From TrEMBL:
PROSITE patterns: THIOREDOXIN_2
Name under which the protein is recorded: SCO2 protein
Residues that hold Cu cation according to the record: 66, 70, 156
Source organism, top-level taxon: Eukaryota
Length: 198
């Protein structure tokens, strides 16, 4: 009679649970290797993705000599962070700025980045580390030709990445998003977030 059906349901449920657990394990392994970086912060301390596990991270690649795009994007990023920080129920958010121009962006310049982001910046004095981080995030970076003053512009993908406390990519935002839209999207991810089981 009825009992047999229940047993079958239990077996099916158990199987799904095991599949879920396996998928989550794979996700976790993937997350730790995905978009990893070895960079230095403005104080010169070595930082990697593992340092930020347990926190939501908004990560932006840019450079301080950028004439217009980066200042606008950083302004937008800090506005989005401000909007999210107004809600005490939400978990804290860590904005990270990774320079794609390590030749000119030393710690001093990075600390001068506007919009209340200074204590939360990541740079790197090593171009190969920046290149590795950019390629881990599939970010395109190319330094343009130098002018008579030795000045140059770095062409780069304008993208902000959202990484959850498990180190998993949740979303990626281009220039067209406003600070309000960005904050709304991040909040949605925070609300729907379920930690990967240990």
């Amino acid at each position: 009679g009825r009992g047999g059906g229940g047993g079958w349901l239990y077996v099916r449920h158990e199987k799904e649970r095991q599949q879920d657990a396996r998928r989550l394990q794979q996700l976790r392994r993937l997350a730790l290797g995905q978009g990893d970086f070895q960079l230095r912060d403005t104080a010169g301390a070595a930082r990697s993705k593992a340092d930020f596990l347990g926190r939501w991270v908004l990560l932006y690649f840019g450079f301080t000599h950028c004439p217009d795009v980066c200042p606008e994007e950083l302004e937008k990023l800090s506005r989005a962070v401000e909007l999210l920080e107004r809600d005490p129920a939400l978990p804290p958010l860590q904005p990270l700025f990774v320079t794609v121009d390590p030749e000119r962006d030393d710690g001093r310049r990075l600390e001068a980045v506007p919009a209340g982001l200074p204590p939360r910046l990541l740079g790197s004095p090593a171009p190969e580390q920046v290149r590795a981080a950019a390629s881990a995030f599939r970010v395109y970076v190319s330094a343009g030709p130098r002018d008579a003053d030795g000045d140059y512009v770095v062409d780069h993908s304008v993208l902000t990445f959202l990484v959850d406390p498990d180190g998993v990519f949740r979303d990626c935002y281009g220039r067209s998003r406003t600070a309000e839209e960005l904050a709304r999207s991040v909040r949605g991810h925070m609300d729907a977030y379920e930690p990967l089981p240990a």
